[in-house]
Amino acid sequence: MIEVKNLVKNYGKYEAVKNISFRVESGEIIGFLGPNGAGKSTTMNIITGYISATSGEVSIDGFDILKNPREAKKRIGYLPEIPPLYTDMSVREYLEFASDLKGVKKSDIKPMIEDIMDKIKISHVSNKLIKNLSKGYRQRVGLAQALVGYPEVLILDEPTVGLDPKQIIEIRDLIKELGKSHTIILSSHILSEVSAVCTRVIIINGGKIVASDTPDRLSESLSSNSFKIRLRGDMGKIKESFESSGNFSAFDMVSSAEEGTFDITVSGKDGVDVREEAFNIAVKNGFTLLLMRPERKSLEDVFLEITENPDSYLEPEKEDEVEVALEDEKNNDNKEGEK
């Protein structure tokens, strides 16, 4: 559905996106992640046709975003980080306005808007002015705008930014529901949200893709042979038994919440099955084994580990240069459009 080939974007001498390529298949929900200045927003802006690439190709359902922008953009619904709302309009007026801009047939506008408002659960505020809505409902209206014209692809940039926990859960559930009928690229700094919603994660850092896989496989690939074990027994004897084993590369022990028990985090040396070794130690020494589970890295841990190289971050002055260059480019694009 979305194909990005050898994408490069330069702002003057600064290369924000460095020859990246990826595909998003129909029906996927992709989490597009990266630290500030990594090239994430630039890539999303190029995919939506908001700015042009220095080189490379982006196609939406087979249509090139530069060579055939009208057909490509028909298939995209875009929710930027700050929704493009006209706050003096009512919700219905705004969605009608968006429908006109997107070229929806007049006869289709009313039933389509009713259907979208019902899906996004904003029908009961359809006649309210947008400026009188809460942040959560404004975000819903922005999402409804992205759905106008029933595009196959949704590009959502920080869709839950600034929302309270209840609103985040509601928008997250909406996105999961929309994923049943749309291909979605989702950018978010709330990594637990990405882990809960997305079928695959792409991590970009320093303008390059540094990881692409499901959240679970990314976590598994970076998790070591480490387990958390809870034992009941003499503290000194437990510590001595594990430290003298010779089969563990790391060992940490603390008192647990249960009286008389201790939580151990232990990693095995190469080729050692931690479960078997810990079980044998417990049986041999008469310890009661209450818990044993693998210690898996969260998506937050994975993200930090992959992007921890500080040299890949933009320096503040370069970020400023990029902002100026982006503004100049948008102005130039507008002038070209006027011609």
Describe the structure.
By secondary structure, the chain is of the alpha/beta class. It contains 12 helices and 14 strands. The strands form 3 sheets. A 6-stranded mixed β-sheet has the order 6-7-8-3-9-10, with helices on both faces. It has a 4-stranded antiparallel β-sheet with strand order 2-1-4-5. The longest helix is centred in the last third of the chain and has 23 residues, at 316-338.
Defining traits:
27% strand, four-stranded antiparallel β-sheet, elongated, 339 residues, alpha/beta
Query: What value does the Rg take, in angstroms?
Result: 25 Å
Q: Whole-number average pLDDT?
A: 85
What is the makeup of the main sheet? 6 strands, mixed
Query: Judging from the principal axes of the Cα atoms, what is the shape?
Result: elongated
SSE succession: EEEHEEHEHHHEHEHEEHEHEEHEHH
Spatial arrangement of strands, main beta sheet: 6-7-8-3-9-10
- Estimated helix fraction: 25-40%
Range of strand content:
25-35%
Q: If helices are DSSP runs of H or I spanning 4 or more residues, what is the number of helices? A: 12
Number of strands: 14
- Uncertain runs are 310-325
Strand-pairing-aware structural class: alpha/beta
Distance between the termini: 31 Å
